[in-house]
Structures are given as C-alpha cells and as structure tokens.
Amino acid sequence: MLSARVAGHLARVRLDDVLAHLARLTAHDRYQASLGIERAAALIAEAAHALGLVDVTVERFAADGATRWWTFQGPRAWTPTTARLAVRAGGATVVAIDHAAQPFAIATYAAPTPAGGLVARVVDARGARDAVDLAGAIAIVDAAGLARPERLVARGALGFITDATCRGAAGEHRGRVELDAASPLVGWSVTAAERAAIAAAAAGGATAHVQVDVDRSAAMPVVTGVLPGRGAPGEVWLTSHLCHPRPGANDNASGAAALLGVAAALIDGRAARGRDLDRAVRFVWGPEFLGVAALLHQRDAARGVAGRPVAVVNLDMIGEDQAQCGTPLVVERPPDWCPSLLGPLAEQVVDEVFAQTRDHVGTWRPGPFLGFSDHALFATCADPAWRSPAVQLWHPGDPFNHSAADTLDKVAPIEVRRATAAGATLVELVASEGDWPRAARVEVVDAWRAREGAAAAAIAARYRDVDGGAWSRRFAAHVDDHGQALRARCDDDAVAWLAPGPPRGGAFAARWPGPFNYRGLLADLDAATRADVTAAFADDKRHYALLTHLAVLAEVADSRDDAIARASMALRAPVDPAVAARLWDALVAAGWLTEVSDDRP
To answer: Same domain for 551 and 584?
Structure first.
C-alpha cells in the first residue's frame, strides 16, 4: 500500500512548477514585515488559488513592533529601499556596497540615516580596543563586538561593519546580521576581503559614506488555503515559513514552493481516488514563528482547542543538494512528550521515498525534536490540551544557510521532489486514516521499534561509561517505554494522532501562555541572566533545544535533576549538567516555572 502511494506521488510532483515558484520567491527580500514578503505572499496566494485550494486568504497582521500574540511580540515593518555604503580613503573608493546588488549587505532592522545620508570616520574596534573613541564613528567589529551592539551605542557609534557572520573557506559569502528592531545603529555585513581592505584604509584615516532609507508601510502577511475534506473532525496542517533575506533558496523558498507542490499532488491524487480526503488539509505560509503564532492566537480566540490541527507537517530547508551541502534529509520527530504515530509513519514514508529514488545521491535519517522552526509552536504549550503532534522535514547544518550563498545552484531537483512526495503521502494518510488500518499501523510501528531498538543500543554503548552506566540503562528503558506506548496506539479503532502523555504531577508547573517562546523568556529576565542564556545559545544552538525540553518536561519531573535527565533522554545524549542547571535557573527566575502550589490548574 505505502509503496504504491509513494510511487504515485513521486510521479505526480509537478517539479518544473515547484522549481519555478522557488525561483520567483528568491527574487524578494522576505523580511518578516516588509514589502518583499508581501509580494512573496501575493505570489503564493495567486498560485494556491490557481491550483484549486479554497478559502485562500492573505491575513495582514499588525507590524508595529508592539502587538503581541501571547508572549510573541510582533515585528516592526522594515523594508530598506536604499542601502549603500562607500568607504573612501585618500580620495579613492576602497569598498562600495549596494544592497540592491549584494544581498545580505545591510543588517536586518538597521536604522535609517538622515535624509541625504551620513559621513563618518571608520574606526577599527576589533579585539581589545575598548579605549578607542567611537563617538560618531562607524566601527569595524568582530564576533564579540557584534554580540553586544548595545555597547557600541553606549560608546556613541553610529553603526558598524563586520565579517563575523560570513561563510565560505575564505569568508567570501556575506552572512546574516540582525539587529533589534529598535536599534539606532546602521550595520553592514561584508566579506573577509572587504573587511581587510576597510581595516587597512581605517588605519590611514577612512570615511564611510552611508545612505539607508527605510519604508515602514508593510504588514506581516500569513497566507492560508484549504483542500476540503469529507467532514471528519479536525484539520491536518502543512506549514512552511516564507521569510528570510533574498535569495534564501533553501531557507526557505524551497519549503514554501514545496507546499504548493504538495497541494498540486494531493489535488491530482484526489482525481485519481475519485473522492476527497476524510479531513481538510490547511496550508500555511508566513514569517517564521511569528506568523504561525499570530494565526494560532487568532484561531484560538475564535474556536478554542477545536481550532487546533490534529497533526502538522512542517517543511523547512528541504531542497539542499546533498552533494554540495553534505547534509542528509532529517525527519525531526514529535517531542517525546507528544507520543504520536505521526513520527513512525513519517519515517516509513521518507524511507520508501528514498528507496524509490536510490539511483540519485542522498540519504536521510531520523532526528530528535529540536524545535528550531514553526513545528515547535504546536507542541510546546504549557497546557497539554492545546498541543498537536508535528514533524519536520529539513536539512540541518547547511553550510550556506543564512548567507548570500543560499542560491538556486544549491538546490537539487531530486531533493525537492523527494520532500514534496513525502509530504503529500504523509498528509494523505493522516487525512484519510481509514486508509491506514490497524494491520498497517502495527507493521509500521513494529518496524520502527526494531530500528529504534538497534539505534538505542548503539547510543547506550557509546555512553556506557557515563554515571557508571546509569544513563545508558535509563535511556534504553526510556526508548522501550516510548515504543510500547506507540504500539498501544495501534489498537485504537480510530487513530488518535496525539496520545495522552504522562499525567501532570511533577514538582513544578509551567506558567507561560501559548507556545513556548525563548525570546519572550529572555525579555522577562534581568540583563545578567539574559546574557548568560544567550551566551549558552551562542556556544551551542542545541542548548536552545535543551531549554525547551526542560521547560515542558518540568511538568512531569520530580525535581530539577529529574527534568535534566528526562531532557537528555529525549535529546538522545547526555547533557552538560552545569549548562542545564543555568537554563533551569533562568526558567525559574523568569517565573515561567514555579513550584507546584494549590492554585495549579
């Protein structure tokens, strides 16, 4: 059954159309509330309507920097209509940059200059140059200086130039630089060669000629469209974020275009089946995190829990050419606190997709829940009643991500076809659960348990010396318990995509509204604790995933140490207890976790 479904959707993918949509999206700077993302949203809406989706809508949420959806603060409208930098010395231009021709050159949320621009001296502020006068200057900064832009403001700098985020062996690709929306600074991302030339010129006295004009008229668009079903309760959602500076081919024009490809494949599949799916399928495109948060907040106010999807598939960075990028396609599972058959089914579907395209380069692997994209918003509400199981297809570790090198030549058509076919097959099965009988469920889950058991044994062996083998023994038991819980779900007459998790009965209670939001958490911390948490994130991005796991698992943990141990089981590796303790203390300091009392809901 599964083999035939996958083959059918691989054949149905309108690859030329998907790649054409992808290319069109890369022409626009898709900042979260900008004229560029509004144009991209219009392209998506037009294509979705042409495919035959119904109720195609472009919601335009406020982009005033003040509107909130739970703890999520809305973006501030920002479109750089002009962004030019010229560094001059001795009557000659050393470096000239125009964002219109050189993507990623201007820092996101850079402040506009006065009418007609500004001229400022260039000062090298890298390294131990704390005593250098930056008043009225454009500073050259390294990673340490970029990490604390407020210090540049305090020292009177007007802006900065940096190559701290550039990519490539020689630092030849500009990387993304992002400021706070209220920053008074103007910032520039340059290549390593440009920075070297500018630093040499600064030593002899150089000036920066800067002009930045900003339009603030845009809203934050979220596009939705529906493939109707036959009336079964609940919707299946497909999500893909639409934002990021141009070109952003893989991140995330690839996912946004693939969603259109999934819609087309499902519509063509409906014609082949001769009937609608049981459940409606909703497609969602918007700015990452904020778009889905705004949409969920709106729907929750109108429909409550009934407005939540029964399952979610998120496509983010699905187009990477594995030969160039070196990263496999990863099926990111639902978190362990959302036990769901969606995970094993997604892995089985993707495995079959790769089996049927084995003549092409590329591999896939499963991965634990990390929560770096929109799927996290469905699984991290403090109240379990508001959670939905979600999986993500993506390529982590792309060396060109968040840089000007994220271009169309890094996209592999076969990878786009694979992800599109996998998404269509998975959604079709979830939206027509009558087509996935108990025997098929048991077969998928038993195969998953066998693979997972072997993988767990290898992981346990790798860490057998940790705590005298205690961690490995607990991990093996955790994996077995999780597999048994999923196996028990196969016996339900009607598939419940989200199984009830462990009863809430830990020593701590979660106190944040809506989905977990690390930016909202940071805003509730004092400056020193905030700096400590952001330093942990900068040291290892997976510490963000650890923070999320600690927050949610605290509800069922007996103590801080128990929560840390549970998080390490879910992340499939021991964690640094000192870092985990610091993150836990931040959750408590912000009031997002409190000791259980009689007023616990």
So the answer is: yes
Query: What is the pLDDT, as a whole number, of residue 298?
Result: 97
The whole-angstrom separation of Cα 106 and Cα 464 is 49
188 and 147 part of one domain: yes
Q: Are residues 274 and 415 in the same domain?
A: yes
DSSP 180-229: -TT---EEEE--HHHHHHHHHHHHT--EEEEEEEEE----EEEEEEEE-B
User: How many of the other CB atoms lie within 10 Å of CB of 599?
Assistant: 7
What residues are paired with 88 via a beta bridge? 93, 207
Classify the C-alpha dihedral 499-504-508-509 as positive or negative.
positive
- How far apart, in whole angstroms, are the C-alpha atoms of residue 91 and residue 586? 53
Q: Are residues 264 and 131 in the same domain?
A: no
pLDDT at 532: 93
What six digits make up the tokens of 553?
Answer: 């698992």
Which residues touch 489 (CB under 8 Å, ≥6 apart)?
339, 340, 341, 441, 445, 495, 496, 499
The segments of the chain whose pLDDT lies below 50 read 598
Q: Phi/psi at 507 (nearest 5 deg)? A: -85, -10
Query: How does pLDDT run across 299-357, given as a tens digit for each residue?
Result: 999 999 999 999 999 999 999 999 999 999 999 999 999 889 999 999 999 999 999 99
182 and 116 belong to one structural domain = yes
- Supply the pLDDT for residue 130: 73
> Which helix H or strand E contains 172, and what residues bound it?
none
